[in-house]
Write a structure and sequence with these properties.
With about 270 residues, this protein is of the alpha/beta class. The protein folds into 2 domains: about 160 residues, NAD(P)-binding Rossmann-like Domain (Rossmann fold, 3-Layer(aba) Sandwich); about 90 residues, ProC C-terminal domain-like (ProC C-terminal domain-like fold), CATH 1.10.3730. It contains 12 helices and 8 strands. An 8-stranded mixed β-sheet has the order 3-2-1-4-5-6-7-8, sandwiched between helices. β4, α4 and β5 form a beta-alpha-beta unit. α7 crosses α12 and α8 packs across α9. It is elongated, with a radius of gyration of 21 Å. The protein binds NADPH dihydro-nicotinamide-adenine-dinucleotide phosphate (NDP) and (2S)-3,4-dihydro-2H-pyrrole-2-carboxylic acid (A1CAB). NADPH dihydro-nicotinamide-adenine-dinucleotide phosphate binds next to α1 and α4.
Length: about 270
Amino acid sequence: MTQTAILGAGVMGETLLSGLVRAGRRVDDLLVGEKRAERARELEERYGVAVVPNVDAAAKADTVVLVVKPQDMGDVLAEVAPVLRAGQLVVSLAAGITTAYIEARVPEGVAVVRVMPNTPALVDEGMAAISPGSHCSEADLAEVESLMGSVGRVLRIPERQQDAVTAISGSGPAYLFFVVESMIEAGVHLGLPRATATDLTIQTLVGSGKMLRETGTHPAVLREQVTSPAGTTAAALRELEVHKVRAAFLAAMEAARDRSRELAEGS
Ligand SMILES: NC(=O)C1=CN([C@@H]2O[C@H](COP(=O)(O)OP(=O)(O)OC[C@H]3O[C@@H](n4cnc5c(N)ncnc54)[C@H](OP(=O)(O)O)[C@@H]3O)[C@@H](O)[C@H]2O)C=CC1
Ligand SMILES: O=C(O)[C@@H]1CCC=N1
């Protein structure tokens, strides 16, 4: 088994780490680079994984996964580039950061893959979109598919689509949690106990998601099936149109796509 280093074990890094451990990856084959001592101790206790300085992890591993904030990427690459060598694979999970940005900062012959994951990976229902850098082999892509496939689905996409993907599946869980929060609050306004409103909303989301996935039916058709003539759903949907929810999603996702592009510029 190859050695994998995860540099930056915050929300997304720990999500990947926990998934790899759940999937049966030996902790001896995993290394973590994390700068805060307290956080390092926490991860060592929770997973039994070795937390070591970034350079040690990067020098030892076959695959180095970068899960720091886009704004920290330049510093981390400057730190580990001197110990990287041809034949290693660098995988970035950071929004906005291009493979060209990374390739310009690592030695010749280091393969680079860009990934946009999402947090449902925590329950093995992640969605990861992966794009190869300029000198990346089929074996490198297969390694990343195996890595991310242990926590959900993986899709290969051209890198030019990564900013839009970030706006859909990377940030997407937050939009859906926001909708869930809003429905729960509305249920409470309608007089339901909070626990009841929460149960009803979550099961409705899970059931609707399962219908979408298992029937393959277009969401507009599924929506029409719920919308009885002159009924309750029609009354509700009219309000969502009046309040321009569809336009708000378009504006929100354009903002996410644009922010991803800005992060590439280092801001
Ligand atoms: N959260 C999400 O849903 C998603 C996140 N991503 C991407 O994942 C990356 C991480 O995001 P997220 O997990 O949310 O952010 P976090 O801030 O939770 O995690 C980043 C981690 O990196 C650590 N870190 C910072 N500098 C270094 C360094 N030099 N060496 C080692 N570790 C370091 C931070 O430590 P400290 O806190 O001490 O600074 C922190 O633990 C980002 O690039 C983001 O774009 C992608 C898709 C989804
Ligand atoms: O908000 C962010 O920047 C990260 C990238 C996608 C989801 N979270």
